[in-house]
Amino acid sequence: MYDKTISSAVIKRLPRYYRYLGELLENDVVRISSKELSEKMNVTASQIRQDLNNFGGFGQQGYGYNVEYLYTEIGKILGLDKKYNVIIIGAGNLGQALANYTDFERRGFYICGIFDVNPRLIGISIRGIEIRLIDELEEFMKTNTVNIAALTIPKAKAPQVAADLVSLGIHAIWNFAPTDLNLPKDVMVENVHLAESLMRLSYNLKAAEESGESI
Ligand code: NAI
């Protein structure tokens, strides 16, 4: 078994390896050297070797990496060989967009319920899943296994709703509301903030402008 204390920087890079390897597989590439992979991914070959050594390597001297094997193993490390049931709390613009995205299922994430407080949304079906009233969530949790809750509600509501989700047994929250959730340590929260990503882009644009680079 691999070391559990792998740095979060490495963990953050794994989905990107997974994506590239998936593309190679789709193109029937059987094996790849760390050098070739590094050219494709624009990271150094030694970074790739170092990253993958955290999990016992997977490569063979003089052969490189077996693409399918590496893809499968990284998938296992990321827990993608399992199936996760996801509920979406907040069926507004973002909640509906997430529910409409079919590719999550390919990765093992299945939307099994969508909840909202707005009675006008109740009964509307998104890809076969009816939006339910949030009051039904407690009952739903008793009869369904739910692994992850996506939070796509206004920021003012998010802390309380997150706490309610935890008391109903949720341990993993995919938080889109632009606020920090202070939850017990055993609850995993993954924050997704597109605006923060845009701010990094604006920082880079500004830095390039100031250094006189043409953009
Ligand atoms: P929206 O107003 O279209 O949808 C919010 C939905 O949440 C509404 O349908 C509303 O009825 C429902 N809602 C409100 N209180 C609720 C509760 N207690 N329980 C269940 N449902 C409840 O808003 P939009 O555009 O979909 O944004 C949703 C959230 O996502 C906001 O907090 C927004 O700031 C955030 N957001 C985050 C992004 C990111 O990158 N993380 C990008 C876009 C939006």
- Could you give the order of the helices and strands? HEHHEEHEHHEEEHEHEEH
Count of individual domains: 2
Looking at the overall shape, the CATH architecture of the largest domain is: 3-Layer(aba) Sandwich
Q: What do the pLDDT scores average to?
A: 91
Helix content: 40-55%
Helical segment count: 9
- Give the overall shape: globular
- The total strand number stands at 10
**Quaternary organization:** single chain
| Radius of gyration from CA coordinates | 21 Å
Strand order of the largest sheet: 6-7-5-4-8-9-10
Question: The CATH topology of the largest domain is what?
Answer: Rossmann fold
Which superfamily, in CATH terms, is the homologous superfamily of the largest domain?
NAD(P)-binding Rossmann-like Domain
Category by helix and strand content = alpha/beta
Bound ions, cofactors and other small molecules, one mention each: 1,4-dihydronicotinamide adenine dinucleotide
Q: Which band does the percent of strand residues land in?
A: 15-25%
The CATH class assignment of the largest domain is Alpha Beta
Poorly predicted runs = none
Largest sheet: 7 strands, mixed
Q: CA-to-CA gap between the ends? A: 47 Å
Q: What does this protein look like?
A:
- By secondary structure, the protein is an alpha/beta fold.
- The mean pLDDT is 91.
- Strand 8 (148-151), helix 8 (158-167) and strand 9 form a beta-alpha-beta unit.
- It has helices at residues 8-26, 34-41, 45-53, 67-77, 93-100, 103-106, 137-143, 158-167, 194-210, and strands at residues 31-32, 59-60, 64-66, 84-89, 109-116, 125-126, 129-133, 148-151, 172-175, 188-191.
- The radius of gyration is 21 Å and the shape is globular.
- Helix 1 packs antiparallel against helix 4 (67-77).
- The strands form 2 sheets. The protein has a 7-stranded mixed sheet with strand order 6-7-5-4-8-9-10. A 3-stranded antiparallel sheet has the order 1-3-2.
- It contains 9 helices and 10 strands.
- The chain folds into 2 domains: 8-77, Arc Repressor Mutant, subunit A; 84-195, Rossmann fold (3-Layer(aba) Sandwich).
- Bound molecules: 1,4-dihydronicotinamide adenine dinucleotide (NAI).
- 1,4-dihydronicotinamide adenine dinucleotide (NAI) is lined by residues 89-95, 115-118, 121, 134, 152-155, 157, 161, 176-178, 192-195.
- 1,4-dihydronicotinamide adenine dinucleotide is lined by residues 89-95, 115-118, 121, 134, 152-155, 157, 161, 176-178, 192-195.
